[in-house]
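Model it.
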Amino acid sequence: MLTFTVKLTVKAGQEQEFERIMRIAVPKVREEPGNQAYIFHRSMQDPRVFMVYEEYDDQAALEAHRAHLRVMGIDLRAMLDGPPIVEFYERLA
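Modeled.
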């Protein structure tokens, strides 16, 4: 199981469009084979900061997810204010 979070800071003025795109993408990602969780959050302290909690069965499922994003035409890099911050976690219980 791969478990991680992705913290994304969006450029000022892009918050609503980013959220709109993600609200469309989230249900589609949850249907991907091997996806166990894909939960989209917004910071309560900074409205430009978003976080996604993700779980996949294995590396192959994660790679399939990345390919699926490309097929959907989702590339949010131009909306970001800096690189995503990814943290992997080990499930303990």
